[in-house]
Amino acid sequence: MQDRCQDIGSARDPAGVLLATLICSDEDCARELDLPVEDLGDLDHAACDCGCTLVLLAVAEETPVTPVTPVTVRVLALAA
Ligand SMILES: [Zn+2]
């Protein structure tokens, strides 16, 4: 599960961010995760849940896609 690692980025405002792909430096863990960050300096504080440091694999400019709001689906289902 990657949830705890991803919590690092989940509290941040996702608008206008870079998407950093990170991998745990521990080969036994090798957890990969994508973190949206406003600044690569934020990654200085990123660490895997196992306690090892995360290694930056790639950075992409990320324009977050607004997910289809589940509420809309629910309203349609109720109306049916
Ligand atoms: Zn790890």
The best one-word shape is elongated
Sequence of secondary-structure elements? HEEEH
Low-confidence stretches: none
How many distinct helices? Answer: 2
Strand content bin: 25-35%
Instruction: Walk across the major sheet and give the strand order.
Output: 2-1-3
Secondary structure topology:
Blueprint: H1 3-10, E1 17-24, E2 32-37, E3 54-62, H2 70-79
Antiparallel strand pairs: 1-2, 1-3
The protein binds zinc ion.
Throw out a few tags for this protein:
elongated; 2 helices; binds zinc ion; alpha+beta; 80 residues; three-stranded antiparallel β-sheet; 22% helix
Any overview of this molecule?
- With 80 residues, this protein is an alpha+beta fold.
- It has helices spanning 3-10, 70-79, and strands spanning 17-24, 32-37, 54-62.
- Helix content is 22%, strand content 29%.
- The protein has a three-stranded antiparallel sheet with strand order 2-1-3.
- The longest helix is centred in the last third of the chain and has 10 residues, at 70-79.
- It is elongated, with a radius of gyration of 16 Å.
- The model has no long low-confidence stretch (mean pLDDT 76).
- Zinc ion (ZN) binds next to loops.
Nutshell version of this structure?
By secondary structure, the protein is an alpha+beta fold. The protein has helices spanning 3-10, 70-79, and strands at residues 17-24, 32-37, 54-62. The longest helix is centred in the C-terminal third of the chain and has 10 residues, at 70-79.
